Amino acid sequence: MKTTKILISGNEAIAKGAIDAGCFFYAGYPITPQNELIAYMATHMPALGRVFIQAESELAAINMVYGASAAGVRAMTSSSSPGVSLKQEGISYIAGAELPAVIVNMVRGGPGLGNIAPAQSDYFQSTRGGGHGDYHCLVLAPYSVQEAYELMFTSFDLTDKYRIPAIILGDGMLGQMMEPLEGQRSKFKSQRYEKPWALTGCAGRKPNIAKSFYLAEGDLEKFNLLLQKKYKLIRAKEQRWEEFFVQDAKIILVAYGSMARIAKSVVTGLRAKGKKIGLIRPISLWPFPEKIFQQTALKNKKAKVLVVEMSYGQMLEDVKLALNCKLPVEFFGRSGGGIPTEEEIIKQIK
Amino acid sequence: MEKIYQRPESLTGISTHYCPGCGHGTVHRIIAEVVDELGIREKTIGIAPVGCAVVAYDYWNFDCSEAAHGRATAVATAIKRVRPENIVFTYQGDGDLAAIGTNETIHAANRGENITVIFINNAIYGMTGGQMAPTTLLGQKTATTPEGRDSTVQGYPLKISEMLALLPAVKYIERTSLASVPEINKTKNAIRAAFKNQVDKVGFSLVEILSPCPTYWGMTPEKSLEWIRDVLSKEFPLGKIK
Amino acid sequence: MGKITIDREKCKGCLLCVSVCPKKLIVVDKKLNKKGIKPVRFEENPECLGCMMCAIICPDCCIEVYK
Fold it and tell me: In this structure, are A283 and A181 located in the same domain?
């Protein structure tokens, strides 16, 4: 299929990616800085015969996603940090019922009402649960409009494959920026994974039940062990990252999302001056790409690591865990809507 | 002699965990009878509440979903929108529908979702040990109103059905009770009408059923039916509201 | 003329059927069931109308009616 190169914002690219990947149900509530996403869905979903609902709250929206997913269709919601806090109960239920779902979080400054500038302060919320219970969501962090579009395909496929919710962790800057998008995928034809567990009416089979409640002695523990087995498999197979001049690097920056764009500029600039510096950019935040850190610890034995985030040190903890004290780790971060600049990072390196 | 009454196919027949004299068993059975009579068992998707009836899905013989407390109408909205040919109903208690879930209830009704809502009003929170519900009567003693409900502190019993009747997209609301065999028969008629509305694509339909909780009302099953007849249905009048 | 059968193991002893039978034909059994409850009992009787009121009021669907 011939595709054109289009100029599009991150928010709209995510919406378009979801639609092209076969998202059949969207429910959301307006919240800055992702309102372009819900508006795009409102415009395009009904025309395709798919379902769009502006829900009465983010809480209602995530529970609608639960219902649509239980009924066997690809379902999604989007919000920003305070709204995603509201969704945590629903996400825990989705994880507990082993339903696929995609939740987009265009992170803004917090805590509380915060502001509408970009931040990366929801890393803990996304990777350490956020909701109650021993569960995980897949967490994928795009750093460009192109990648945001493509990760929608990845997230819908992986959530269907593993029956797990996924969080697309963007931020206000990524949502608003406009970049070229090319190679758009051909129109979605059919879901790759069968869903015999879906609620479709029990004709010709025993009734299905979507639930996360296991009251009888020992049942919940047994179920949790199944979940843990699933998470172990995902950890082994679904780690994603990008390496940028890591091979001979003596200083290795670690950054994700919009922060990685700034970090890449730092690397490019300093490499031109002969400095041996590189960047590891995690794309999957859960499962965290431990493999590249373990490899790097073996190969770049004298390297120093500098983690840069728009937070006060959340991904930092996973980097330290993955390196297991094998390399020294330092941190630089700004939050509350503040964005570390190239100059600030270079100053840290010196 | 021929058999003229037996367990409906849509009821699994598993012995329930409900207390002796609890209304849940009766309404589960009536819903199952209506689903069988309308021939919709293979299309029906029920949504269970959080409350004593949290495991209602074990007692019915059709597809079911659990929902987070109060969120059943949001779950039902989505299932019905993506599978409009299925028959989708929620089964909710007074806390689920009129306390934590009030927002979802009002908005699903206001959007006129073509779903059926079965509202079990027993004026108390049974599963958690008998606390005040939005529909608890003034003066009624509960675990959280040990001196009796006081309007100056806890407000008045909530007439959610009357409130929902104000919404233009709501097509049918009726309040019935389980206080006697004739009342149970009226309950079944109302439930049948509410399900038939969905089949006929009429729109949002709700049946509120005054149901006994002998355990937390501190009465025998027989006395609790009398209390519904003599006290509860004076505060919550029976009949068609819309 | 009618008759009923009662699933005595499912019966919880709520006694609503006892209160509702117009001919007072349902009684409390002396023998316990496996739940440790005294369920109700019906002995065949030409007075039974097969009116189904006991089955309708039974919350646990224990009763089948014949006519």
Answer: no
